[in-house]
Amino acid sequence: MIDVAAAVIENREGRILIARRKPEISLGGYWEFPGGRIEPGETAAECAAREMKEEMDVHIETGDVLAETVHDYGTKTVHLVAVRAILLGGRMRLHDHDDIRWVTVAEMDDYLFAPADEAIVEAIQADSKKSASKN
């Protein structure tokens, strides 16, 4: 089991950052919420912040856990924890990704997400529907 954290970064306009994995790496071409492997003694929030600095050279502020999922890829099983976050600053540079997009919740259906990340998309969409019904 590999423990992984992902940052669900929302901007002021309500758009969420997604990133496409480079073709030459595992799950290349799939879209995901950026993040990485949780190190021993590290929380999911700490991991998401560290990974965003390492992978994209940006600083984030993390919040609560949005969703957790376990996905068996056949060769490995991933336990993915998605944390809410906001972008604080930095200059976006891509290392493990070849594209990024700021998308609305509705636009997420237009992208092919990595299988583990699909559960996060569903959680975001469910959360969005709850918020809309309160208003």
Q: Which CATH architecture is right?
A: Alpha-Beta Complex
**H/E element string?**
EEEEHEEEH
Helix count, DSSP H or I runs of 4 or more residues: 2
Helix content: 10-25%
The outline comes out as globular
CATH class value: Alpha Beta
- Major beta sheet, specifics? 4 strands, mixed
Q: How far from one another are the termini?
A: 40 Å
Pairing-aware structural class of the strands and helices?
A: alpha+beta
Rg (CA only): 14 Å
- CATH topology call: Nucleoside Triphosphate Pyrophosphohydrolase
Strand order, main sheet: write it out. Answer: 4-1-6-5
Which whole number gives the mean pLDDT? 93
What is the fourth-level CATH superfamily?
Nucleoside Triphosphate Pyrophosphohydrolase
Q: Would you count the extended β strands for me? A: 7
User: What proportion of the residues form beta strands (DSSP E)?
Assistant: 35-45%
Domains (count): 1
Structure explained in plain terms:
The protein has 135 residues and is α+β, with helices and mostly antiparallel strands. The protein has a single domain (2-134), classed as Nucleoside Triphosphate Pyrophosphohydrolase. The protein is 24% helix and 41% strand. The chain has 2 helices and 7 strands. The strands form 2 sheets. It has a 4-stranded mixed sheet with strand order 4-1-6-5, sandwiched between helices. The chain has a 3-stranded antiparallel sheet with strand order 3-2-7, with no helix packed on it. Strand 5 (58-72) and strand 6 form a beta hairpin. It is globular, with a radius of gyration of 14 Å. The termini are far apart.
